[in-house]
Specification:
This protein has 283 residues and is α/β, with parallel strands linked by helices.
Length: 283
């Protein structure tokens, strides 16, 4: 069950973003876009600006191919992009608040035996999401569609791929402080993320943490960053299997053509994430 009431805002935003991306060449009017959210011009403008921090017209420029290509050109290497954002070092970036850990070989073999995963479903600016933790470490952040089941059996099945032997229990009260620290600009201590991964996957996901908010890179650039310039296809597979959305920012990897490409949790949500971050980074 949801820890909070589902918020209709993201669904309205998502419909408008989908309409904008499909019709941006026609430069749709505010009234046409507002109609997708079933709102008046005034209320839609206010809703959208509250969500994105900019007007729908301004937001549209962050979705264009030219803008994406310019960001790819300006982010020549992950290290340079990190320096430009004022982040020193390359081990713990992504706003200096995510620490990524891989399970030990012994833990990998046990497949979660003896571990307890606590979970809850919360609302975010990008719709509902499933949050799972092992101790004080996040092991899953997965966006959900409104119609997806959130009963105990369905949730347990989501964790079974990586942690088939773990005990899975709902605990929204314990996870609420952690959820409050994820989609926020408030001061916070580093968030610890625990993943079950191959050494290659871990390398790729660590590279993703070096992409500053508001920047994008290509699959080829990630492959080069981990010292395997011919492995862009394998990089794409690793990115697509990321179990901790947003915090391990796989949405910041796009095609070298400038097209945003696919996303595990939907192309519209990826567009929303990239536009939202670009808008806030541009302030």
């Amino acid at each position: 069950m949801y820890e909070t009431e589902a918020n209709p805002t993201y669904q309205q935003i998502a419909r408008s973003i989908e309409f904008l991306t499909e019709n941006f060449r026609q430069q749709p009017s505010l009234a046409e876009v507002a109609n997708q959210a079933n709102l008046s011009d005034y209320h839609f403008q206010r809703l959208f600006s509250d969500w994105a921090g900019v007007s729908p017209k301004k937001f549209l420029q962050y979705l264009t191919l030219d803008f994406a290509k310019e960001r790819l050109r300006s982010g020549l290497t992950l290290a340079e992009a990190a320096d430009e954002a004022g982040l020193s070092g390359t081990g713990r970036l992504h706003d200096l608040f995510v620490v990524l850990e891989g399970v030990t070989p012994g833990q990998f073999k046990l497949a979660g035996e003896g571990l307890t995963i606590r979970y809850a479903v919360f609302e975010s600016p990008f719709g509902p999401y499933l949050l799972g933790t092992i101790g004080d470490r996040i092991c899953r952040l997965e966006f959900l569609e409104e119609a997806e089941p959130t009963d105990a059996i369905s949730i347990a099945h989501r964790f079974a791929t990586d942690w088939p032997e773990a005990t899975v229990i709902p605990d929204s009260a314990a996870l609420r402080p952690l959820a409050d620290a994820i989609f926020t600009d408030a001061a916070r201590k580093p968030l610890r993320v625990l993943v079950k991964a191959s050494s290659f996957q871990l390398k790729v996901w660590e590279a993703l943490l070096r992409i500053p908010e508001g920047q994008v890179v290509s699959y080829d650039q990630i492959a080069a960053a981990i010292g395997m310039p011919t492995a862009s296809r394998a990089v794409g597979t690793a990115i697509g299997s990321n179990p901790v959305g947003y915090l391990i920012p796989c949405h910041r990897v796009i095609r070298k053509t400038g097209l945003f490409g696919n996303y595990r949790w939907g192309a519209t949500r990826k567009t929303a994430l990239l536009g939202w971050e670009a808008a806030y980074a541009g302030k």
